[in-house]
Amino acid sequence: MTIASLRESEAGGLVGAQKLTDGIHLVVDALKLNEIDAIYGVVGIPITDLARLAQASGIRFIGFRHESAAGHAAAAAGFLTKKPGICLTVSAPGFLNGLVALANATVNCFPMVQISGSSERHLVDLQRGDYEEMDQLAAARQFAKAAYRVQRAEDIGRGVARAIRTAVSGRPGGVYLDIPAAVLGEVIDADLGAASLWRVVDPAPRQVPEPAALDRAIELLATAQRPLVVLGKGAAYAQADDQIRQFVELTGVPYLPMSMAKGLLPDDHAQSVASARSLALRRADVVMLVGARLNWLLGHGDAPQWNSDAKFIQVDIASTELDSNQPIAAPLVGDVGSVMQALIDRTGPGQIAVPAQWRDELSARSAENVGKMAKRLTAAETAHPMKFLGALQAIRDVLRENPRTYVVNEGANALDLARNTIGMQVPRHRLDSGTWGVMGIGMGYAIAAAVETGDPVVAIEGDSAFGFSGMEIETICRYGLPVVTVVLNNSGVYRGDDASTSGDPAPTALRARHDLMIAAFGGRGYRATTPVEVAAALREALAAGKPALIDCVIDPADGTESGNISHLNPKGITVQR
């Protein structure tokens, strides 16, 4: 798209006509050329007209109340679509707000591009005190996969192309693109501008490992007595669902899905050992990591959580991830889909046979743990005040009736208990706090899932976690998105029954009627005090397909500090006064 401009002399006489364009138009044109159809952001100086033009040009602009939530939405869009989600922010403070999400996207390996306006370089570099002066490029470099700055309007197409390719190639991540206000406003010849744009071709080409590497991995699995496959969110991102399922079922190897890999195979699949996780990790002698990393979420592969003699096979697009915590006996560097297909093609019939004793051991432990959980759920059904598990099993039952619903989940107890209670049947339908355990992703992720897919979304939130992005309920209502937010409200961080030691509330205390909050924005609010009320409200809200919030009143005494990672939370000594 170009603008036609007639230049006139100071006296008002026509002196010539020329087709012109500017930096704002070139950014929009470059994004459209690369099939970007949604932008998440917050408008303001100097990017307001860019958002207006994007919307007028057919790109959907979703305007948020805070840049952090907009960035999280862009990251989730990247995870769901394998195209970089675009976050648009203003300079300095707005850029910094978005930077949290950009860093989180990089750690989580989600493709995302944050485009921010910035102050003029000649003022920033001499620290002359310009409006929102900041060297944003230098700040972003520490937290993103890459950071670029465009200095001329004719380089905007190049900058957008570089950002897109970098975000999705190899290990995906967040990329920062700095465009100063002067460049956005720069006017150049329209033909020169059009010629400067291009579409990125094959930004994430297939990578297949060497045959010898495949044979090494197959031999390890074939000789294992207690093999295990661990599926990470990288496996879900790869959209290699058929190849992963075929390999798992071909070999018969038990598998453990990480939280965002749930649904790659249905959670009730016969080979899933999610219910015997601790035993599987502690006893497995050969472990195949597929799009999963031996980071803190897997105890770094260390004993006693793991078998100290375990040998690891690792499927990862980034060779630098290998040997990061444990020796990798059989590295398979490549994209998940290509590696899994190559393994299928090279694995002979019956070449990998899982000993019956290992299967029986895992099955017995799974049955034992399922039985224990069933007793806890039964006890929670009638507990008053309502417990986390009472509300969650009501949510679980409704979601079973609606398997295509996306689930977003964050909090401490809300996250841990929902992950263990609610099964997934469909790939990439569970999004949660991820590698960093970041709170505040909830509303952004939910908005992106609704925008990118059009399907219903249920965001299961702890009341503390919800507070980080709760104002985005207004965004959900403004755009009429089919998002139902369920707040597990136990009136506190972790729990709400801590006693205060002063005239102020306890440090962990919270108090809110979230159902009244959404009513202020035109959505439907529900207040539920029993599992029956939770189920009824959720069914009604999903059937309506409109913004809704269910405030679930949970026993303030229910909850564990820091959820399943309380061992990471240092405790102070009790001081006698």
From TrEMBL:
The residues the entry assigns to the signal sequence are none
The Thiamine pyrophosphate enzyme N-terminal TPP-binding domain covers: 23-138
| CDD domains in UniProt | TPP_BZL_OCoD_HPCL, TPP_PYR_POX_like
This protein's record includes keyword Transferase:
no
Q: Does the keyword Magnesium apply?
A: yes
Keywords of this protein's UniProt record, alphabetized? Lyase, Magnesium, Metal-binding, Thiamine pyrophosphate
Instruction: State the superkingdom.
Output: Bacteria
Ranges for the Thiamine pyrophosphate enzyme TPP-binding domain?
A: 417-552
The record's Pfam families line, in alphabetical order, gives: TPP_enzyme_C, TPP_enzyme_M, TPP_enzyme_N
Record-annotated Thiamine pyrophosphate enzyme central domain positions: 214-343
Cofactor requirement: thiamine diphosphate
Family from the record: Belongs to the TPP enzyme family.
Question: Which PANTHER family does the protein's record reference?
Answer: 2-HYDROXYACYL-COA LYASE, 2-HYDROXYACYL-COA LYASE 1
Recorded hits in NCBIfam families, A to Z, give:
oxalate_oxc (TIGR03254), PRK09259.1 (NF006721)
Q: What is this protein called?
A: Oxalyl-CoA decarboxylase
What organism does this protein naturally occur in?
Plantactinospora mayteni
